[in-house]
Automatic annotation (TrEMBL):
GO terms for biological process: ribosomal large subunit biogenesis; rRNA processing. Belongs to the EBP2 family. InterPro entries: Ebp2. It holds the Pfam family Ebp2. Residues 86-113 form a coiled coil. Keywords: Coiled coil, Nucleus, Ribosome biogenesis. This is EBP2 protein.
Length: 251
């Protein structure tokens, strides 16, 4: 021990505190529970208590060193325009950014694929439910038809249900057509061609039309009246040879 003290006195230097910045404190109490953080209060096997005791010790040392530094006019706050070079280069940080970006894009793709799978699964489920409902309705209708054919039932309610279901599906479109009405092109075609129905053989004569002579005009039939075409027939343009003769006479 004496040898250690002698060696310490040989290389020990008498420097000012601002050059050494050493702070020695005794017991440090917990600022919350105000209990001394000595060896009996801190369990060394408990990581949380051990780390908190280190934190309280460092905090108390800082609180004691700051006033002494301010008294010696040593700046303790970083200036606003402070510039320090980063420990990692820009190339390394760029690689890290690209890696993080690719990882995020992969996560987004995976999430989108998961959503698409869920939507497909839900769509198939809905489609299966619709098909099952239709098959059930068809089966019920066939059973009702068989019962009616065999005379076991005299009700035709299944036909009414089918008509109401079909009318319910087309209710929206029919109401829109009634509200809007046909456009000008549709009205012209309806006026020209009619509204459907039988077209073939519509001009055939019947017994009533053959005996009906109310539209007969004797003057027109015996060429005593004006010719068909009216003014257009009278103002007929002369032929080419006649026009050439008329031009030669005019010369």
């Amino acid at each position: 021990q004496n040898g250690l003290k002698r060696c310490l006195s040989e290389f020990k230097q008498q420097l000012a505190w601002v050059e050494r910045l050493d702070v020695t404190l005794g017991q440090v109490s917990d600022p919350i529970s105000q209990s001394a953080s000595n060896k009996d209060a801190v369990d060394p096997e408990n990581d949380f208590q051990r780390e908190m005791s280190f934190y309280w010790q460092a905090q108390a040392a800082v609180l004691e060193a700051l006033p002494r530094l301010r008294k010696l006019q040593v700046p303790t706050r970083r200036p606003d325009d402070y510039f320090a070079e980063m420990a990692k280069s820009d190339q390394q940080m760029q690689k890290i950014r690209q890696k993080l970006k690719s990882k995020q894009e992969a996560m987004e793709r995976s999430e989108r694929a998961k959503q698409l799978r869920a939507m497909r699964k839900y769509g198939k489920k809905v489609q299966n439910e619709i098909l099952q409902r239709r098959q059930k309705e068809k089966k019920n209708m066939l059973n009702a038809v068989k019962k009616y054919q065999k005379g076991l039932s005299d009700k035709l309610d299944f036909l009414d249900e089918e008509q109401t279901s079909s009318q319910g599906n087309k209710k929206g479109s029919a109401s829109q057509q009634i509200k809007k009405g046909p456009n000008a092109k549709r009205r012209y075609k309806n006026q020209k061609f009619g509204f459907g129905g039988k077209k073939k053989g519509s001009k055939w004569n019947t017994k009533e039309s053959f005996n009906d002579v109310s539209s007969f005009r004797s003057k027109i039939a015996h060429s005593k009246g004006p010719r068909k075409g009216g003014k257009k027939a009278l103002n007929k343009r002369p032929g080419k040879r006649a026009r050439q003769k008329m031009k030669s006479r005019a010369r």
